[in-house]
Amino acid sequence: MKKGLYTVTENRALTKSVFLMRLAGDTSAVTAPGQFVNIALDGLYLRRPISVCDVSEKEITLIYKVVGDGTEQMSRLPEGAALDLLTGLGNGFDASLSGSKPVLIGGGVGVPPLFWLAKKLLQEDKQVTVILGFNTKDEIFFQEEFKALGADVIVTTVDGSVGIKGFVTDALKTLHPSYTYSCGPLPMLKAVYNTSDADGQFSFEERMGCGFGACMGCTCKTKQGHKRICKDGPVLKKEEIVW
Prior knowledge:
Helices cover 17% and strands 36% of the residues. It is an alpha/beta fold and 243 residues long.
């Protein structure tokens, strides 16, 4: 974990409520897809945890949804604004277990951390399929970006306005993955768990106090005992999950 100041180089809307932010600064602590950063914001006591979408030598890309005061404040930050970040938090995805035909499943704002993972797996010559799940076409983002990487992309919408009508599991049932990686709301994760026979990894969300394992506020029960989502997660393997 590292603490530092980062400069906003881009902050723009992808949909009505979803924004992309790029931050220039030290990225050396961000080492695995699925890790997150914790952002300090003016007037708010707790930092806001946001998953890393992508990283380069000098820049971190975040995608976040405006759901409260913290993210609303983030959406108004101009280029050049400075933010205090804790970086390199969480354990991230283990790409070495993917097999030859991994399937990545993201729902809503669970999509962003899968982008860097897809890039990494494609660089290793894996045949990557990405399932992106949304409620309606107006909520869709990063479909073309995943395609540009070289992934096979399947979109599902609950109302059927784009792609397959239904949920991510409706698409998953048609595939035979070597391994699955999932990030999204808890009901989606549970449905993926019950749908696929393949092994996999699941990225969970919990309310966090510190974000680095000190306060124990995000502790959850697993088959290997209690684990902290911020420190021992957010990624858990299928075989250790207790619903």
